[in-house]
Design goal:
164 residues, mainly alpha, 3 helices, rod-shaped
Length: 164
């Protein structure tokens, strides 16, 4: 035998010596993995069944929610419409309050001036004068014979009392 053959046989022996323990360890690992898979198989099957049941329940719930949502859609649309209407009312009230805020003081000033003018005018006019004029006018009207022309009533009412 030649040296090359002997070196080849030695290398082959070293290679087989190194591979046999690795192959033995791999076989033991595969056996252990097989035992684990066999032990976990029923548990995985049970977990998958529960997952399938939960998915079926979720699908039923989703179907129910979709049907309820279809029933509630008109209610939601009405609520949105009411919300829009309330927004428009709010805008209208805001506009009115702006206008009232601008016009209100002027109206109050005009009303105050009107009331002050009335008080001033009623303070100038004596009630006894009015009563005596009304009584005289009543006597003049009742003393006239029927068919005669009534007296000029404009003359009985002084024009300067009505200030405009």
């Amino acid at each position: 035998m030649s040296t090359a053959s002997i070196v080849g046989l030695i290398l082959l022996g070293i290679l087989v010596g190194a591979i046999v323990p690795v192959l033995y360890q791999a076989a033991q690992t595969l056996k252990s993995a097989r035992r684990q898979i066999d032990a976990l198989g029923p548990r995985v099957d049970h977990a998958l069944q529960e997952l399938t049941d939960a998915t079926a329940r979720l699908n039923r719930i989703a179907t129910t929610i979709e049907s309820q949502a279809d029933r509630l859609r008109p209610v939601v649309e009405h609520v949105v419409g009411i919300g829009n209407t309330l927004g428009q009312v709010r805008k209208s009230v805001h506009r009115f309050s702006s206008v009232a805020g601008a016009v209100g003081p002027a109206l109050f000033a005009g009303l105050s001036a009107f009331m002050a003018h009335r008080r001033k005018r009623s303070a100038r006019t004596e009630p006894a004068e009015d009563e005596t004029e009304d009584q005289e006018l009543g006597r003049n009207l009742s003393s006239e014979p029927p068919g005669s022309e009534p007296p000029n009533t404009r003359a009985a009412v002084p024009e300067d009392r009505y200030e405009y």
